Amino acid sequence: MDDSAVEDYSDSFSEDSSEPEEEEFEDAVVGVVDELSPEPVGQLMSVNMEQDQSEEQFDTDLPSLHSYLGAELEVVRGRTVLEDGAIVTLDMLQPADLVLVPGQTLPLTVFDPPTINMLRGCLRNDRTFGVLASWSDGRNTTINNIGTTAEIYEYLPDEGSAGFRVKAKARQRFRMLDPKSNQWKARVRILPEIKLPDPLQAVQLQSLNRHRTSPALHLKSRRADAAVTRWPAFVYEQYDVDKLIADIKKELSIFSQGQKDKEKEKAPVKVIIPDDPTELSFWVAQNVPMKEEHRLLLLRLNSPIQRLRWELRALQQCRQVLCCQYCLNMIGCSADMFSMSTEGPQSTYVNPGGYLHETITLYKVKNVFSIGPPSTEFSWFPGYGWSCCKCKHCNQHVGWKFTATKSQLKPVKFWGICRRSITVKMGTLQPADCDNQLLVF
């Protein structure tokens, strides 16, 4: 896809089309109010107040609860923390076509008896199991020796015909020591989180300490410290965790681009981004669309500063264009993403058949059409009905359209695009950059 496609995407808002506009950049509000005739200001204000009072903003806390799994789930208390570098034996979940990232929620609906027995065994012990990074291209499945532990925090005691339902939270990264080990159990080493010290800490000028707490003078103080070393200040700035966090958040402003449009469509624009460098590095890996190979690379890195530097580079070079995985036609862009969940614009959900779907929420899309009337059965977003969506060019399934069941609920509709159904153009970032030897930290 050439750059002209990106220009066509932005121009398509104003272009008229002879084709039905049902799924091409649909408005997120159903029913446009006719122009109001001139009325007294007081009466007009009264109408606006009545409209505001009748509107109901969607509660973004609801999707992260995964209430579609049922209200009878039993909560498990406590937290298991494995020591960095420890060698332990973990029960292993069978390949789930997922690169799980610490902090990510993992909902499961399981029908396979051996997997149910494995999960029940975990509940009797420390409630922790392992998930190896894996993905499929439709023909072959790639399984890696890097994975993430997951800790069960809710489960359905009696599975019945609906399957054994579990909610787990991803916790710590690990490396499998013996790739040929038993498929249900494996010896793994817990990977450490290495926090690099401030490289200028040993040469800090004491006379500038009173200025270091001021955000406006912090950078100037560090540049003065760097002046007494052999390296220029910009070298140290590449490892300044505060500057990395600030630069990352600046790049993440793509989620608030088009804010006026999002406010018009009543789409939530608030995104809660962590301040802790470790949590932020994993949040970016989970929520920013990227190739599975790139996310695996981030799991291999043991330092949050290393992960943040790679993510910053990727964000700066990302085209921010989402394309169909099968025909490479444009579906949307990063500016169209928004958070329908407190966990971010991309979350993991499970359908009644037990298939996991990493889903990106967008308030408008292109080249997508929906099939059939919306259904509220097993809806991931309470108050919304879903209908399957396909690519207009290749007719492949790419996600779902969600429509509010009440006209007062805002946004009235939005789209959930399945992560495995799209590909992301990463600018000049080449696949070979996944090789650790080609990365400079």
What does this structure look like?
This protein is an alpha+beta fold and 441 residues long. 24% of the residues lie in helices and 25% in strands. The strands form four sheets. A six-stranded antiparallel beta sheet has the order 11-12-17-15-14-13, with no helix packed on it. Helix 9 runs parallel beside helix 11. The longest helix has 14 residues. 35% of the residues are buried.
* Structure annotation, total helices: 11
Radius of gyration: 24 Å
Q: What structural class should be given to the helix and strand makeup?
A: alpha+beta
Give the ordered list of helices and strands. HHEHEEEHEEEEHHHHHHHEEEEEEEEEE
SS elements, strand count: 18
Helix content: 10-25%
Alpha carbon gap, first and last residue? 31 Å
Instruction: Report the uncertain regions.
Output: 1-51, 428-441
Outline the biggest β-sheet. Answer: 6 strands, antiparallel
Which strand order spans the largest sheet, edge to edge or round the barrel? 11-12-17-15-14-13
Strand percentage lies at 15-25%
Shape from CA axes? globular
User: Regarding quaternary structure, how should these chains be classified?
Assistant: single chain
User: Residue-averaged pLDDT, rounded?
Assistant: 81
